[in-house]
């Protein structure tokens, strides 16, 4: 047995011994009584009885040894700002933010919704929440008012932190009017809105509700706000993710399990050492941003780079110039970013001294072989794919080079990570597939390891019914991904089993987009599918049936209506969810029982065989789509 196989085996067979050891990587205020309380499956209570604090582990505990070391390096190529905060400075800023929260009435367990661009204040806002035991819910800045409103209603925040605007490609992207609109739409109203004013866009202020961050910060410069010790299982945050229904699910994370899982992953997977610099190019609105821009690197005593801007502006050398300047040792990005760079002159990638960099980790979507080969060759560094989900918070599959060096295989995110008892399951029988290279649903035996979702916020039933009830005859966690495993234990991911699509590493539910398109007055019915795309991995393509087709007499009308529909999606969900095209059809392909055949539509769009269509209601419907896309 290899050293890694043994490590993994022990993490499953001697679960408590294994994680009890990993738990020593963090600070505890009160030791736990039990490593894993799994008396009420599938709900796991990791490190039950213990007390700790995420902010203490990310910030305060480093003050004794690395107060003057960089902690957070904020770089914006949009506003030409670069500012490094040492651990001491970060500690002070977080306490100021925490004091502001307290003055606004935020208490332990209250929610704070953060709707912000990639600026340092967003990091302060997150850390300050967990410092006082408040629960943050970061909403990606690219989402618009409807998406935001549904999250406000679900999380019911006491306070919302926002900013006047983000910037993208040199243009300001105003936030405040979207936020005001969202609060108007939402049933729940926050008591206060804390505004960071960057001076990028004018905005209206609501008397008595909106308060100014800079003013309050001035009043709290010397704030001392100790960390609130919370129970291990106290929720640290909620992060919404798309599923198969229009209503996003609030992934709820605990405190201690998450802290331990991230600390261990830095050691075993990412090979980041304290004092070094970690650069993740994600956004705080996504899970990678939570785990590997903010918490993971800081828990590990590293400096972390928070970057606002595009990978190719001012030119495609920008990220690599930061690697040189800050001696980045670990970098984390998404395959889409690599594909964007691939269109640029590769000379930009070698213009800088990259000797500090140990590896580039890519995750969030399938990594295709040409992209992996290209970027690996251009950088002359190992490219390490890893597979995980918002729900898990850290990798399910990876190469754990920190345990034992192992080769990568093209197209594979590696082996099951320690702590995850991953199985491939036959969809129809529910039996485990043990044969190599045979396709199955990727599922995990409970308990999920520390750091994974505790439940769906406010909806334990939905947690069980969504994640633990779809495998035939078994109570197992389903990833809703297809996969195969080869003879050496390497997995290959073959796409989703549900209606979730992945656009440029961003997960979107086709149902959400369909609901938005359906709100257009002339749309009777719509199907949205994910179609393979060279740059973004997948794009959303919509097929709509109109209530009044006479309004679309020719191609110009169709173009105008398509633009109108895209505007509806932009306004409600955000440009991130905008379909690449909207086509109009007289009927959607459905089964005789009325189910839209999304997979058949997708296959036709991708020029593949549409599969078994014996249950199809009207074969002409698919032919119509074939004609439109060919
Ligand atoms: P998210 O929750 O947004 O991180 O999306 C998770 C989904 O993205 C997974 O269920 C997969 O479908 C996909 N995904 C994430 N990482 C990878 C990867 N390395 N290879 C293939 N698919 C991935």
TrEMBL record:
One of its GO terms (biological process) is propionate catabolic process, 2-methylcitrate cycle. Pfam families: ACAS_N, AMP-binding, AMP-binding_C. The chain crosses the membrane at residues 112-134. GO terms for molecular function: ATP binding; propionate-CoA ligase activity. Residues 60-447 form the AMP-dependent synthetase/ligase domain. SUPFAM superfamilies: Acetyl-CoA synthetase-like. Belongs to the ATP-dependent AMP-binding enzyme family. Gene3D superfamilies: 3.30.300.30, N-terminal domain of ligase-like (3.40.50.12780). NCBIfam families: PRK00174.1, PRK10524.1, propion_prpE. This is Propionate--CoA ligase. Keywords: ATP-binding, Ligase, Membrane, Nucleotide-binding, Transmembrane, Transmembrane helix. Residues 4-58 form the Acetyl-coenzyme A synthetase N-terminal domain. Residues 512-595 form the AMP-binding enzyme C-terminal domain. PANTHER family: ACYL-COA SYNTHETASE (PTHR43347), ACYL-COA SYNTHETASE SHORT-CHAIN FAMILY MEMBER 3, MITOCHONDRIAL (PTHR43347:SF3).
